[in-house]
Amino acid sequence: MDRNLALELVRVTEAAALACGRWVGKGNKEAADDAAVNAMRKTLETVGISGTVVIGEGEMDEAPMLYIGEKVGNGAHTEVDIAVDPLEGTSICAKGMNGAIATIALAPKGGFLHAPDMYMEKIAVGPGARGAIDINAPATVNLKNVAVAKGCRVEDLTVVILDRPRHDKTVKELRKAGARIHLISDGDVAPAIAAAVEGSGVDLMMGIGGAPEGVLAATALRCMGGDMQARLVFLNQEERDRARAMGIDDFDRIYRAEDLARGEVVFAATGVTNGDLLRGVRYFSGGASTHSIVMRSRTRTVRFIETRHFFDFKPRLDQAPATQETPCPAKTF
Ligand code: VTB
């Protein structure tokens, strides 16, 4: 895979972040998502690939852009599969809260786990705790093992977990064990990656989130030598049937990062709002700055890129929105 593709992908996530960056705090998550999707799709047209979206915004009829099966890229001969989340954390963006990112990942054909848009239980750590996690073990045991691997105390560890009723028991257990907890309202891809970044202040990401987000996180962790275990969470028979139709027959299977994202993979993300991993889009007179991460599994080179964009010279990148408010629904599961 051409290594320059990595930088091409940053252009794609930058464009998405700049587009939805204008919607931060405007209370309209659909519009923010639309802006990111359109910008990502447009920029992908310039990238030298023949890509197929395998993880995207949904099925063709429910998502006009970047739907699963959509062909993207300029038609060059490199055939790849694409996973996108043009705005991971739509509610975060709409509320102007921390942790929204624009992200894309690329794998050789067939490299990403093919699963429905459903829940996935995940535990992710950085290279320093590789081999220390076990999704079947109690949270306390994982904490102890990660602490030993990292040469610190459980009290020094920070665990990021989605703030959902389904995690109440785990959160209680983590607190009892003495770990520090960072509850997040949405967006579990960025903290999984942050766990693999020395000095980010995040040691583990765990809990039940989206399966597509799990595949994106796994791609990034493969590029960083981090470790992840995951298991699909089926809520009903329909989900089992859909998964079976996609070739999944072992419903209890534990997936490692290497099973979720196989072969030579590339990952890029740009911050939309500030987070543990990336800073958000910041505007200045005549332009804006973005903060991105881009990496490849082949070399494990991790680049953080700070870019200054000047709208007088790239007017396409700046899209000021009309104002409109849509409430963000409360979480119950
Ligand atoms: C996570 C998170 C997403 O969905 O995967 C979460 O990363 C899981 O679903 O940003 P619930 O919201 O139903 O708990 C998001 O929060 C939104 O897609």
Automatic annotation (TrEMBL):
Mn(2+) 2 binds at residues 85, 88, 213. SUPFAM superfamilies: Carbohydrate phosphatase. It catalyses: beta-D-fructose 1,6-bisphosphate + H2O = beta-D-fructose 6-phosphate + phosphate. One of its GO terms (molecular function) is fructose 1,6-bisphosphate 1-phosphatase activity. The keyword Metal-binding applies. It holds the Pfam family FBPase_glpX. Substrate binds at residues 88-90, 119, 164-166, 186-188, 210. GO terms for cellular component: cytosol. The keyword Manganese applies. Its cofactor is Mn(2+). Keywords: Carbohydrate metabolism, Hydrolase, Manganese, Metal-binding. Belongs to the FBPase class 2 family. This is Fructose-1,6-bisphosphatase. It comes from Geoalkalibacter ferrihydriticus.
